[in-house]
C-alpha cells in the first residue's frame, strides 16, 4: 500500500509541475507576441510621421529655393549692370587720360632710362670679362710656373739619386780597387758642380717668373682701378640724370592725377545716386519675395487652425516690418540726399512701375 501511495504522489507532483511549466510558457509567448505587436505599431507610426515630415519639408524647401534663386538672379543682374556702368565711366574718365599721359611722357623717359641702363650694363660686362680674362691668364702663368718648378725639382732629385748611386758604386769599387780613387774624386767634383748649376738655374727661373707675375698683377690692379673709377663716374652721372627725369615725371603725373580726381569726384556723385536707386529696388524686391515666401509656407503647412493663426500673425509682423523698413529707407534718403530727394523718389517710382 505504501508503494502505491508513493507512486500516486509522484505522479501528482509530476502532473502539477508540467501544468506550471505549460502555464509559464504560454504567458511568456503571450508577452512576446504583445511586445512584437507594440514594436511593429510604433515603427509603422514613426515611418508615417517621418514620411509626412519629409514631404512637407521637401515642398517648403523647394519653393523657398526657387524664390531665393530668382531673387539672387535679379540682384546679381542689377549689381552687374551698375558695376559695368561704373567701370565704363571710370575707364572713359580716368584710364584714357592716364594712358595718354603715360604714352606721351612716361614711355619716352622709360626708353631713355632703359637705354642708359643697358649701356652701363654692357660696360660693366666688358670690364668683368676683361678682369676674368686677365685673372685666367695670371692663373695659367702661375700654373705654368708651378709645373716648371715641379719639373726642375724632379730633375734635381733624379740627378741627386743618380749621383748618389754612382758615388756608392764607385766607393764600392774604390774599396776593391783603390786605384780609381782619383777618378771618383773628379766625378764627385763634377756632380757637385752640376748640382750647383742646376740649383742656380732653378732659382733664376723662379725669380724671373715671380717678377713677371708681380708685374702682371700690378698691371691688372691698375686697369681694374681705372675701369672701376670710370664706371662709377658714369653711373653717378646717369643716376643724377635719371633722378632729375623721374622728378619731372612725378610732377607731371601728380598734376594729371589731381585733374583726374576732380573729374572722378563728379562721376562718383552720379554713381552714388544710381546705387541709392539700386538699393531701393533691391529692398522692394526683398520685401515682395519675403511676402511670397510667407504665403507659400502658409499654403504648405496648413495642418491645424493654430498653425494658420500663428503664420498669419508672422505675416502681419513681417508686413509691419516691411512698412517700417520702407519708411526708414525714405527717411535715410531724405537725410543723405537733401535737395535731390524728390528726383531720387521720382526715379524709384519709375523703376517700381517698370518692375510691376
- Uncertain segments are none
What is the first-to-last residue Cα distance?
114 Å
Q: Compute the CA-based radius of gyration.
A: 56 Å
Number of domains: 1
Number of helices: 4
How would you sum up the major sheet? none
Helix % is over 70%
Secondary-structure element pattern, one letter each: HHHH
Shape: flat
Q: Averaged pLDDT, please?
A: 71
SS content category: mainly alpha
Strand content: under 5%
Give the tally of β-strands: 0
Word description of this protein:
With 356 residues, the chain is an all-alpha fold. It has one domain. Helices cover 96% and strands 0% of the residues. The protein is built from four helices and no strands. The longest helix has 175 residues. The termini are far apart. The relative contact order is 0.07. InterPro entries: MetI-like, Na/solute_symporter. GO terms for molecular function: transmembrane transporter activity. It is a multi-pass membrane protein. It is found in: Membrane. This is ABC transmembrane type-1 domain-containing protein.
Amino acid at each position: 500500500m505504501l508503494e502505491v501511495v508513493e507512486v500516486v504522489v509522484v505522479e501528482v507532483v509530476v502532473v502539477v509541475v508540467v501544468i506550471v511549466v505549460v502555464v509559464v510558457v504560454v504567458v511568456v509567448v503571450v508577452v512576446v507576441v504583445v511586445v512584437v505587436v507594440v514594436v511593429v505599431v510604433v515603427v509603422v507610426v514613426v515611418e508615417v510621421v517621418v514620411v509626412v515630415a519629409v514631404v512637407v519639408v521637401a515642398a517648403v524647401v523647394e519653393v523657398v529655393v526657387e524664390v531665393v534663386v530668382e531673387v539672387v538672379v535679379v540682384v546679381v543682374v542689377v549689381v552687374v549692370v551698375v558695376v559695368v556702368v561704373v567701370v565704363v565711366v571710370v575707364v572713359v574718365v580716368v584710364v584714357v587720360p592716364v594712358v595718354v599721359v603715360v604714352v606721351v611722357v612716361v614711355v619716352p623717359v622709360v626708353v631713355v632710362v632703359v637705354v642708359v641702363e643697358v649701356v652701363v650694363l654692357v660696360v660693366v660686362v666688358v670690364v668683368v670679362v676683361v678682369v676674368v680674362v686677365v685673372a685666367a691668364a695670371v692663373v695659367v702663368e702661375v700654373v705654368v710656373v708651378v709645373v716648371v718648378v715641379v719639373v726642375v725639382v724632379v730633375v734635381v732629385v733624379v740627378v741627386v739619386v743618380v749621383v748618389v748611386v754612382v758615388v756608392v758604386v764607385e766607393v764600392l769599387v774604390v774599396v776593391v780597387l783603390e786605384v780609381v780613387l782619383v777618378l771618383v774624386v773628379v766625378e764627385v767634383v763634377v756632380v757637385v758642380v752640376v748640382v750647383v748649376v742646376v740649383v742656380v738655374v732653378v732659382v733664376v727661373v723662379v725669380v724671373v717668373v715671380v717678377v713677371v707675375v708681380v708685374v702682371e698683377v700690378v698691371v691688372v690692379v691698375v686697369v681694374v682701378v681705372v675701369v672701376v673709377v670710370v664706371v662709377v663716374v658714369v653711373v653717378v652721372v646717369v643716376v643724377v640724370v635719371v633722378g632729375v627725369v623721374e622728378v619731372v615725371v612725378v610732377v607731371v603725373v601728380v598734376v594729371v592725377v589731381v585733374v583726374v580726381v576732380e573729374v572722378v569726384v563728379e562721376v562718383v556723385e552720379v554713381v552714388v545716386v544710381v546705387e541709392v536707386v539700386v538699393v531701393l529696388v533691391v529692398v522692394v524686391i526683398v520685401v515682395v519675395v519675403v511676402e511670397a515666401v510667407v504665403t507659400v509656407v502658409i499654403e504648405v503647412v496648413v495642418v491645424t487652425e493654430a498653425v494658420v493663426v500663428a503664420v498669419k500673425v508672422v505675416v502681419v509682423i513681417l508686413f509691419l516690418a516691411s512698412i517700417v523698413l520702407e519708411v526708414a529707407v525714405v527717411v535715410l534718403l531724405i537725410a543723405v540726399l537733401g535737395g535731390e530727394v524728390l528726383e531720387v523718389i521720382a526715379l524709384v517710382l519709375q523703376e517700381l512701375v517698370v518692375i510691376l
